[in-house]
Amino acid sequence: MSERGWDLRILSWNLWELRGDLRAAIEAIVDLEPDVLLMQEAPRFVLPTARLAWFAGQTGLRVLVGGAGGRGLAILASDEIARQVIRRGAHPVAQRLSDLNSTYPRGVAAVRLSVPGGGAVVVSSTHLALQEENRIAHAEHLSALVRGAGAPVIVGGDLNETADGAARRLLAPVLGDPAEPSELTFPAARPLRRIDAVMTTPAVQVRRAEAVTSTQRVPAERLAGASDHLPTLLDVTVRG
User: Fold this and answer.
1) DSSP string covering 102-152, please?
2) Tens digit of each residue's pLDDT (9 = 90 or more) over 200-238
3) Which terminus of the chain, N or C, has less C-beta within 10 A?
4) In contact, 33 and 81? CB cutoff 8 Å
5) What average pLDDT does this structure show over 118-136?
């Protein structure tokens, strides 16, 4: 806790169900030292809870939300952050089934944290659908949750559309993406679009917002093999 507030580093990353270069992913996360890691496409099949716990241990983090029944979402955090947990959980968001891609489970994972000195902040991971209709329905659901949170909110996610998309426009009044549009995230090997973001409500002070292209030990070529998405980093200050 600094004089100006509670400093947090948030990393959001679609980790491709841990099918990529795991050593590169682990080393990148350790290099970046996030307080909170918001995961999309976390393990869903073949011992998902054990695999997620192993991955968390390798990065020096703890699983707060995720594993079996986690709908491909997870929230990992440092021991210090884990001690501040008030509530945590995940729930589904209904989707209209139109094709095989629409069968992927969607939802919202969230943790409410106590801010040292008073107050709270909510951190959340989500993954919007490939179909626009389902993305809009998910965005409406998420917007309602943010409006009712009663605290500053930080949401990291694979949004499957750029800032001019219908779902992003719907979210814009409550959640802003502080990074520049030039911070491209997908596809990882040759990024062309910014479809991943860490968004915040206005009460959150953003100090740094960017897509990560390399880290101290992981050059761009290796990072592109860790997932088909690049991670998004946000340094923020939350006041009590």
Assistant:
1) GGS--EEEEEEEEPTTS-EEEEEEEE--SSHHHHHHHHHHHHHHHHTSSS-
2) 999 999 999 999 999 999 999 999 999 999 999 999 999
3) N
4) no
5) 97
From 37, 35, 52, select the one nearest 124 (Cα to Cα).
37
Paired tokens of 133: 């209709």
Please report, as a single letter, which amino acid is at residue 21: D
Q: Are strands 205-211 and 196-200 parallel, antiparallel or unpaired?
A: unpaired
DSSP per-residue string spanning the chain:
-BTTBEEEEEEEEE-GGG-S-HHHHHHHHHHH--SEEEEES---SSSHHHHHHHHHHHHT-EEEE-STTSTTEEEEE-HHHHTTEEEEEEEE------SGGGGS--EEEEEEEEPTTS-EEEEEEEE--SSHHHHHHHHHHHHHHHHTSSS-EEEEEE-SS-TTSHHHHHHTTT-B--S-TT---BSTTS--B--EEEEE-TTSEEEEEEE----SS--HHHHHHH-SS--EEEEEEE--
Partners of residue 227 on adjacent β-strands: none
187 preceded by a cis bond (ω within 30 of 0): yes
141-144-146 Cα angle (round to 5): 110
| Calculated CA dihedral for residues 80, 60, 53, 12, nearest 10 degrees | 80
pTM score, two decimals?
0.97
The count of other CB atoms within 10 Å of the CB of residue 64 is 22
